[in-house]
Amino acid sequence: MTLVDTPVITAGGPSLTQERRLVTAIPGPRSQELLARKAEAVASGVGLTLPISVVAAGGGVIVDADGNSLIDLGSGIAVTGVGNSAPRVVEAVTAQLHSFTHTCFTVSPYEGYVAVAEKLNELTPGDHVKRSALFNSGAEAVENAVKIARHFTKKQAVVAFDHAYHGRTNLTMGLTAKNIPYKSGFGPFASEVYRAPLSYPFRDGGLSGAEAAARAISVIEKQVGAENLAAIIIEPIQGEGGFIVPAAGFLPAIVEWCRANDVVFIADEVQTGFARTGAWFASEHEGIVPDLVVTAKGIAGGLPLSAVTGRAEIMDSAMAGGLGGTYGGNPLACAAALATIETYEEDRLIDRAREIGAVLIGRLNALRTADPRVGDVRGRGAMVAMELVDPASGAPDAALTSAVAAYAHANGVVVLTCGTYGNVIRFLPPLTISDELLIDGLSVVAEGLKHA
Ligand code: PLZ
Q1: For the whole model, what pTM was predicted?
Q2: Does 143 contact ligand 1 (Cβ within 6 A)?
Q3: Distance 450 CA to ligand 1 centre (A)
Q4: Shortest-distance Cα residue to atom 1 of ligand 1
Q5: Among 26, 91, 209, 364, which residue carries the largest CB count within 10 Å?
Q6: CA-CA distances (angstroms) from residue 124 to 26, 145, 269, 280, 357?
């Protein structure tokens, strides 16, 4: 093995040929070489969904080192809403690279950070006065939202929900619901984290939003108490937990209870944010105005950036120096975010997310009608999933789900699974995908279901 391979630079972006093209089995020989090196060099805990060696991506495809072109229905887990190597992002980051790469905003500030904060304050729900703070990852931003809420309320407890996913750091592992693979053996977890039942229309016997909220609030009041509770954190549509859309009225009732009880309502919009669901933020579909909104993923076209945005009085409660980090709001990431947001706006990608949603929901509902193993189809915009079950009992069918995903992968379609029970296939295509590719990708998934 050579120490340094000759770098292969392959231009990506929307000008890549938009097609599904398989020239080898997946993974092909070059991908397998990388996987062998990965096994020797990278910790096993860093797992892989689709073991290829990526050399370029853009529009709606990912190209591997063997020359295969795969349809991207995952966007790197809801990140590249504007597509990989989106032209405005490439241009803005390249320009920023040539001027300066890092000063640390809290040492000597620069405009990009402030401009991103202004944009977030403008775009997030509610017309109250807002402030933002920038970080690197979703988990880091969630941690900071909780820090801020605790400092403001002078209370300690935090409530998260069943099926929640909030990250892999210690506090966010504690907030996350699912044991394997996220938590098992990684404790002890942070204290003062409590869990409440969610609204899960497909599995909670048809509770209305109001009934599910009353159930959650009763658990919170009996087991925690508003006088101890700093914040409730929730994903407006759960991501890793299974693309669970709560029944109408659930989120507004929780927000109302928070307002009445001096509890900070934190919306984790890390996966749902930035045009993904056919709105800037998924909170808008339920007309709720969170006190704090956590964003990441789709914010910066693939560069690492995250944020907490919220009511000025809450955000300003921490003392100067209380919030920060070396890299938070790095100038390259901020340049990328401004170009990404401009791309969502100029290319009308919120509308595009809705169109993609119509195609997804239409095709998947047709599958459901034809095949009782498709128990549920749900989601909003370009965040849609199907839950696979044993038709007789309704029990989750994780084996079927893995088989369908494996079939799709082998046939050149990148799909992701999710769900507490591992039985959900989720669709998160880049908003730059063509209808043609999207439909081709969905027909491969449908074939996979037939074969399984
Ligand atoms: N909150 C709602 O979806 C990240 C996790 C991938 P980070 N989801 C993808 C994996 O297996 O690690 C996520 C999320 C919601 C927080 C996070 C955490 O965001 O940027 O991964 O830290």
Answers
A1: 0.97
A2: no
A3: 31
A4: 166
A5: 364
A6: 41, 15, 10, 7, 22
